[in-house]
Amino acid sequence: MSDLNTPIPLRPDWDTNAGSYKDVPYDKTHRLAHEPLVKAETFGLASESYYARTDGENTPYDGPIEGSLPDIWCRKSVAQKLVKANFLLAALEIEILLLDAYRPIACQAGLWAFFMAQAQRDMPKASDAKRREWVLTYVSDPSFFDSSNSCTWPAHSTGGAVDVTLREKTNGQVLDMGTHFDDMEPVSRTDYFESLLKKGAIQEDTHPALRHRRWLYNALSGVGFINYPLEVWHFDPEGTQMGICNRRAMGLNAPEKAWYGYSSPPSLG
Q: 75 forms bridges with which residues in the sheet?
């Protein structure tokens, strides 16, 4: 298990956000450009549509987001990569739990509105530009969406980006990551506990969230995903605009163009 326990790289000066990738061009001729969306559960992947929950247990929303889908959908090749990640985790008796992947524009708009409202409450003296900048740290802006313009596509509208955590296979218990999904605070930075460890504020062998984050990060990195360093849960495959942007920001080799572009919602009939 040494590979899964490899420390997560520290990225204290990370300065890209959920809008930085919009100038990455799209290759509509790529063989995966029109790959279909598939339901995650048909690949044996554990999934729970966080934004569609009606039991109030989806902090901070406490209810469903308008436009959310009842099931998790993603590109077929993305599902296949997640299956491979589960093989890496199998010896630990844990598995990937998908919380979100493909996201309709209506749901994206609901999330944008939610956090803009929060910014107005929490930053009453800030300018609209400052509030928007804060929200863009975590959420792509769908306000100018145009299905024919790749500069306007939210990351999750491609079916490539995924939001994930880990759970125990035997009982479905979600592992402690040190924060809840969509917690828009510094603790959500992927390297948050690595930073505390470096400062001597926590101990490596007694901190479960540090260990669990490493398992998640290394399992997904091991099958070709790239993490967005400000969100421990968000990962992209190589072919999304955001994935390419983040690879470049990390000094890694990246394709010139993305091949996962905007996808229409799946047929739910």
A: 37
